[in-house]
Amino acid sequence: MLQKEEINSYNKRHETVHQRSLDFLSEKLAHQGVDIEGIINKTRYFQVAVPSWALGTGGTRFGRFSGGGEPGSLEEKIADVGLLHALTASCNAISLHIPWDIPQDAGAVKALAAKHGLLFDAVNSNTFQDQSGQGQSYKYGSLSHTSAIVRQLAIDHNKEVIDHGMALGSKALTVWLSDGSCFPGQQNFRKALSRTLESLQQIYKHLPSDWKIFIEYKPYEPNFYSTVIQDWGTSSFLANQLGEKAFTLVDLGHHLPNTNIEQIVATLMMQQKLGGFHFNDSKFGDDDLTTGSIKPYQLFLIFNELVEGMTSGDPEPAWMIDASHNVKDPLEDLMQSLEAIRIAYVQALLVDRVTLHEAQEANDAVSAQNILQDAFRTDVRAIVAEARRVDGGALDPIGVFRAMDIRKQLIGQRGEKAIATGL
Ligand SMILES: [Mn+2]
């Protein structure tokens, strides 16, 4: 566990430069009538969950090159998220994947997480692979399967995931299905979708009254011809059929190239049906790269719609990073994502919404573009750093991680060959 004094001593080295940048930005924003203190406070409360599978090196279907010192148990995964939270003060929750991370002693696991200042966010079910000893196979689908026995297995699994989540204090279940087909004609679209709805209805009945279910969509992969829940429209249809506890989940990587994701966000929020949000970035497909590494302007435009929704009183979605780290240290990669997310959020908060609405009503495309790009081109890193500092985090989290040789310490504790469980 990182001690606050250690972080403070590193912060001292950066204090003067940081304060100068913050003062400069404060003065600039004050001229525009922006209350920087209010923005710093909002930033502090913007917390993103880290999934238990993101703490090890990810791979592709061609290979995986693990980096050493990866967490080999749920307890070690909690310790890793605790470390990230100590450095960044921006990820106060962990999102578990069942069955990769089944808590054996929920009370002890909950207490350990609390020691690190962590809560449990949405729990994630897995019917995209068979578990050892499983009597039936998900090879041809799970909730949509042609066999009622396989569907029941998948339904029961989701119910168990809810039970595990209840023991930990989670309040939501995320369902992502790999169900679909690889060849034209292989699957009857109508039957597959209606079987999926019936299965989800069984799971929905098991949800506690204060829980939500998030339905994630994805256009292709691992199935390459069709997926049962291919897009936000299909997810939205299912959520509306299920009821008021069901919502759509947007994963940034789950769209075909050039899809206008910010418009999807606006449409779902307007209907109060955006429940969950998965951050990552991509060039071609579901690349699961570091958030903001490829298309930072798109991330900002998405946040612009999220902030527009939240300021209109729409409920705030559950935020989670859903990325895979092929060549970077997973913890450094997550710190980069956390920074990028807060930068885009703060830039979206800077958008002069009153003037933007006026420009939109007046069909003034030039002013509208300028308002958005003024916000996007503002270097807000001092605000993000200040929000971390106020909450005891590091002004330069990756700098501290490297200066303290934390990966080397983890390798010392866990070994060079330690591979994160579940991956
Ligand atoms: Mn996802």
Averaged pLDDT: 96
End-to-end span in angstroms?
A: 25 Å
The succession of helices and strands, N to C, reads: HHEEEHEHEEHEEHEEHEHEHEHHHHHH
Helix content: 40-55%
Total count of helical runs of at least 4 residues? 15
Q: How many strands in all?
A: 13
* Largest sheet: spatial strand order: 6-7-9-11-12-13
Q: What proportion of the residues form beta strands (DSSP E)? A: 5-15%
**From the alpha-carbon coordinates, what is the Rg to the nearest angstrom?**
22 Å
Uncertain regions: pLDDT < 50 for 5+ in a row? none
Largest sheet: 6 strands, parallel
Structural class: alpha/beta
- Coarse morphology: globular
Bound compounds, each kind once, are:
manganese (II) ion
List the topology elements.
Elements: H1 4-31, H2 36-45, E1 49-51, E2 59-60, E3 63-64, H3 74-88, E4 93-95, H4 106-115, E5 119-120, E6 123-124, H5 148-168, E7 172-176, E8 180-181, H6 189-205, E9 212-216, E10 226-227, H7 232-242, E11 246-251, H8 261-270, E12 274-279, H9 296-311, E13 318-321, H10 330-350, H11 353-361, H12 365-376, H13 381-390, H14 397-403, H15 406-414
Parallel strand pairs: 1-4, 4-5, 6-7, 7-9, 9-11, 11-12, 12-13
Antiparallel strand pairs: 2-3, 8-10
Helix pairs in contact: 1-13, 2-13, 5-6, 8-9, 9-10, 11-12
The chain binds manganese (II) ion.
